[in-house]
Design the sequence.
């Protein structure tokens, strides 16, 4: 499915949540294509194991970062700025999900606990890295969202409300950043599909590699496309 027309050779890419799932699969594809990748992970042991695999494929730099922590986005931005003088792609992939049947089962803590990792970290990374992105070549931001966070999905089911609401908010944030950076940085949101990742669970219909390919596809779109929601290269509502 990967487009042969897109050249990622030499591209400088930051991928959050690169030690597993969609982030790991996307990292493999971009490294094989000759990109330079900085990838974050929150689990040190897992990140080391992932790094051993990814560094065999190309130029991969691991960065330990837990976006539940308030200082993490600034630390990541500082590390990227120390290494590179420009950034071509920021792939905001890291997120958390805790399945509960509704607001009552979640209680009051979960939304507060997970807002930082699922919304504010992405916002802060764009904010802190926007000048580096503007110095990049046809720079892009991809915020990894979910079909569970579409307006229609919110209307259809009240389950896992914190996850749905944070992804819905991420969509709005994508639109607002796209408006601000129009003509300078393309900003889009991706639904990678329901996949057999740690987040998606073993019952999901898709494979992690499907998510990696959809990340490749959204990054292969015409650079003029911005402020939209995509499932790979297919625009969704």
Sequence:
């Amino acid at each position: 499915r990967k487009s042969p027309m897109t050249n990622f050779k030499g591209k400088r890419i930051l991928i959050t949540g690169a030690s597993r799932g969609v982030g790991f699969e996307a990292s493999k594809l971009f490294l094989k294509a000759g990109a330079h990748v900085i990838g974050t992970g929150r689990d040190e042991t897992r990140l080391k194991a992932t790094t051993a695999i990814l560094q065999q494929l190309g130029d991969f730099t691991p960065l330990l970062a837990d976006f539940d922590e308030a200082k993490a986005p600034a630390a990541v931005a500082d590390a990227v700025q120390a290494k590179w003088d420009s950034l071509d792609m920021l792939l905001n992939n890291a997120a958390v999900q805790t399945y509960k049947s509704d607001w009552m089962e979640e209680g009051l803590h979960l939304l507060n606990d997970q807002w930082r990792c699922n919304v504010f970290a992405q916002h802060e990374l764009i904010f802190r890295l926007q000048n580096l992105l503007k110095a990049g070549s046809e720079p892009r931001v991809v915020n990894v969202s979910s079909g569970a966070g579409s307006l229609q999905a919110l209307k259809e089911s009240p389950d896992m409300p914190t996850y749905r609401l944070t992804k819905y908010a991420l969509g709005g944030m994508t639109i607002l950043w796209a408006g601000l950076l129009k003509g300078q940085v393309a900003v889009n949101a991706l639904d990678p599909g329901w996949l057999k990742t740690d987040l998606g669970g073993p019952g999901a219909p898709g494979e992690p590699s499907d998510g990696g390919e959809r990340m490749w596809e959204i990054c292969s779109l015409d650079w003029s496309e911005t402020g939209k929601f995509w499932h790979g290269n297919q625009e969704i509502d």
The longest strand covers residues 36-41. The helical segments are 21-32, 44-54, 72-83, 103-106, 109-134, 151-156, 161-180, 208-219. Residues 4 and 39 are 24 Å apart (CA to CA). The beta strands are 12-15, 36-41, 59-64, 89-92, 140-144, 186-190, 229-231, 234-236.
